[in-house]
């Protein structure tokens, strides 16, 4: 029977790989292994120190950036407060302006359209407030020479763009012996829109 060598080809006697490491002493192997471990430890320590230095630098940069942001915020805070105050003032001015009655325009329009047979005794105007959705009101009392003159006053007031829903509140016939000389006293109510041309 023929013997069979079960060793791999590189480990068989006479192979060029079979003699590798056979001439090394155990102390030399330990020395080389220790040196390799020391080099690896030094590399790991060096990488750790490098990364730690990078992290420290980044933390320092972050702290500096936060300090700068805090300084900018401290400077910007009064500016923002001033802007908010200015915006509040502008809003208040716009609110007042939106409800302002241009009396010169109102009086000029009324003088232009009223017939000569009638005149006004009192006038009350409450301007509309768009922000509060509050409609304006217009109320007058006056004297006319006749009922036809009162009707003419109603027709003329309907021409004004800043009045709407014009209604006759009351009409009192004057007597011939009254101080008004037989004239009729009337009251007229209407809705008032400041944006309709009174401003």
Question: Can you describe what's shown?
Answer:
48% of the residues lie in helices and 19% in strands. With 199 residues, it is α+β, with helices and mostly antiparallel strands. The chain folds into 2 domains: 19-98; 103-196, 2-Layer Sandwich (Alpha-Beta Plaits), CATH 3.30.70.2830. It has a 4-stranded antiparallel β-sheet. It is rod-shaped, with a radius of gyration of 51 Å. It starts with 25 loop residues before the first helix and ends in a 7-residue tail after the last strand.
Topology of this structure?
Elements: H1 26-98, H2 103-113, E1 118-126, E2 136-144, H3 147-157, E3 163-172, E4 184-192
Antiparallel strand pairs: 1-2, 2-4, 3-4
Q: What's the gist of this structure?
A:
This protein has 199 residues and is an alpha+beta fold. The protein contains three helices and four strands, in the order ααββαββ. A four-stranded antiparallel β-sheet has the order 1-2-4-3.
Characteristic key phrases:
Alpha-Beta Plaits, 2 domains
Mean pLDDT over all positions = 80
Task: Report Rg.
Answer: 51 Å
**Overall body shape:** rod-shaped
The quaternary organization reads as single chain
What ranges have pLDDT less than 50 throughout 5 or more consecutive residues?
A: none
Overall number of domains: 2
**What's the β-strand tally?**
4
Distance between the termini: 128 Å
Structural class: alpha+beta
CATH architecture of the largest domain: 2-Layer Sandwich
Instruction: Describe the sheet with the most strands.
Output: 4 strands, antiparallel
């Amino acid at each position: 029977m023929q013997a069979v060598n079960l060793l791999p080809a590189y480990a068989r006697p006479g192979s060029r790989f079979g003699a590798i490491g056979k001439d090394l002493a155990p102390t030399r192997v330990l020395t080389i292994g220790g040196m390799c471990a020391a080099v690896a430890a030094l590399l790991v320590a060096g990488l750790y120190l490098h990364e730690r230095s990078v992290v420290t630098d980044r933390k320092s940069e972050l702290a500096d950036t936060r300090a700068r942001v805090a300084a900018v915020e401290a400077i910007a805070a009064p500016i923002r407060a001033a802007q908010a105050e200015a915006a509040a003032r502008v809003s208040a001015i716009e609110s007042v302006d939106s409800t302002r009655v241009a009396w010169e325009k109102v009086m000029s329009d009324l003088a232009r359209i009223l017939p000569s047979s009638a005149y006004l005794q009192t006038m009350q105007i409450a301007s509309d407030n768009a922000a509060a959705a509050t409609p304006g009101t217009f109320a007058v009392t006056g004297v006319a020479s006749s009922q036809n003159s009162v009707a003419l006053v109603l027709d003329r007031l309907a021409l004004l763009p800043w009045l709407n829903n014009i209604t006759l509140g009351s009409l009192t016939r004057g007597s011939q012996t009254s101080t008004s000389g037989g004239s009729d006293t009337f009251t007229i109510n209407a809705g008032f829109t400041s944006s309709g041309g009174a401003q």
